[in-house]
Structures are given as C-alpha cells and as structure tokens.
C-alpha cells in the first residue's frame, strides 16, 4: 500500500499548469492524456485497495470486539471464583485473561493502524478524483484552444502573400506564384474588357433609344404616324 500511496501522491502533486504549458508548446495534448491514463489506472488500484483495507478494518474490529467480550467475561469469572474460594480456578482464569488482553492489545494496535491507512487511502482517492476532474476540464478547454490555434495557422498560411512565396528562393515556388499572378492579372483584364463591352452595349442601347425618339417625333410632326394608324 505504501508504494501505491507514493505513486498516487506523486500524481496528486503533479503541476497541472506545467502540463498545460507543455501541451501548448508542443501543440499536442499527449502529455495530458498520458497523465489521465496514469491517474485512471492508479484510481482503479486505489479503489480496490480502499475496499480491501476497509474489509480488513471490519474483520479486525469484529475480532477485537470478540476478544473484548471474552476478556470481560474472564474478568467477571475471576471475581466469582475468588468469592467462592476457588483460587485455582481464579488463577487459571487470570492466566487466560492475561493472554486475552495481550491479543486484545495487538488487535487494538492493528485496528488503529488499519483505520489510519484506510483514512489515508480514502483521502488520497478523493484528492485524486478531484485532480482527474480538473485535468479533464483543462483538456477540454485545451483541445478547443489548440483547434482554434490550428485554424488560425491554416488561415494565416492560406492568406500568405504571393510576394512572400516569390521571395523564398525556390524557383518552382516562384514560378507557381508568377503563374498564379498572371492568371489573376488575366482574369482582372478580362473583367475590365467585359465591363467595357457592357458599357458600350448600354451606350448603344441608349443612343438607339434616342434616335428612335427623334424619328418618332418627326413622324408625328409629319403626320406619318397618324396616317399609318388610320
């Protein structure tokens, strides 16, 4: 039990802030996951140890109570034997009482020791469970933080300028950047041409409309529209 408590106390005293810092530096929660696995394994062992020691406490207490009852009975018998003048029986009973009291003292010492160990194990179990709950909450927050960081890194890489790519010294990358820039320039020029064509078409439509209006006015003045309608 001593070695188990030593391992548990080491886990309890672990610096969670340090682990979180390490996880952030490594951009990984592996160090935290490893700690959680160790805590869960030791928590299972600790739970089993608590049950074992708790059972031993009950067993020793029951035996202590049995010997206490026997010692009380022998003590009463000695008085009875002495009152009846049976010193021989009183001496035999006193001898048994002495032996019983020695065993009783041993059981009392064992019970005190076991109860102390049981309380230590229970306390360690509660502390370890609290530590596990805390680090699991930290892991959830850390996972969200790392995902956000990865997303931002991806966005930063995606938004990296072509000028930076061209300047990295890699001829292939530079050619790719130039090719992309050329395509962008061509697309931009094509957009401008289409815009100009659209403007021209609009101008043509407007001019045609103006001409039609002028001709319609002339026809009205000449009476051509009325005669045509009649």
Walk me through the topology.
Layout: H1 2-12, H2 16-26, H3 30-83, H4 87-158, H5 162-166, H6 171-222, H7 224-229
Helix pairs in contact: 1-3, 1-4, 2-4, 3-4
What does this protein structure show overall?
This protein has two domains: about 1-160, no CATH class; about 170-230. The protein has helices at about 1-10, 15-25, 30-85, 85-160, 160-165, 170-220, 225-230. Helices cover about 90% and strands about 0% of the residues. The model has no long low-confidence stretch (mean pLDDT about 80). It is mostly helical and about 230 residues long. The longest helix has about 70 residues, at about 85-160.
Summary of the model, kept short:
This protein is an all-alpha fold. The chain contains seven helices and no strands.
Shape: rod-shaped
Rg over alpha carbons: 48 Å
Distance between the termini: 119 Å
What would the average pLDDT be, to the nearest integer? Answer: 79
Task: Give the count of helical stretches.
Answer: 7
Number of domains: 2
Largest sheet: none
Quaternary form? single chain
**Pattern of helices and strands:** HHHHHHH
Strand content is under 5%
Helix content: over 70%
Low-confidence stretches: none
What attributes does this structure have?
single chain, 230 residues, mainly alpha, 7 helices, 92% helix
């Amino acid at each position: 039990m001593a070695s188990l408590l030593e391992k548990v106390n080491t886990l309890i005293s672990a610096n969670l802030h340090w682990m979180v810092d390490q996880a952030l530096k490594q951009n990984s929660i592996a160090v935290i996951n490893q700690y959680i696995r160790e805590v869960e394994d030791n928590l299972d062992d600790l739970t089993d140890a608590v049950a074992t020691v708790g059972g031993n406490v009950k067993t020793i207490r029951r035996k202590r109570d049995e010997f206490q009852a026997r010692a009380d009975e022998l003590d009463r018998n000695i008085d009875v034997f002495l009152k009846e003048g049976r010193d021989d029986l009183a001496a035999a009973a006193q001898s048994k009482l002495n032996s019983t009291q020695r065993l009783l003292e041993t059981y009392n010492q064992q019970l005190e020791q076991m109860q102390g160990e049981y309380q230590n194990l229970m306390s360690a179990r509660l502390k370890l469970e609290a530590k596990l709950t805390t680090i699991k909450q930290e892991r959830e927050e850390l996972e969200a933080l790392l995902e956000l960081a990865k997303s931002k890194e991806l966005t930063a890489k995606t938004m990296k300028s072509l000028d930076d790519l061209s300047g990295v010294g890699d001829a292939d990358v530079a050619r790719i950047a130039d090719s992309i820039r050329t395509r962008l320039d061509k697309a931009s020029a094509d957009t401008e041409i289409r815009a100009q064509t659209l403007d021209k078409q609009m101008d043509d439509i407007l001019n045609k409309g103006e001409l039609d209006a002028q001709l319609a006015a002339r026809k009205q003045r000449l009476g051509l529209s009325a005669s045509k309608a009649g």
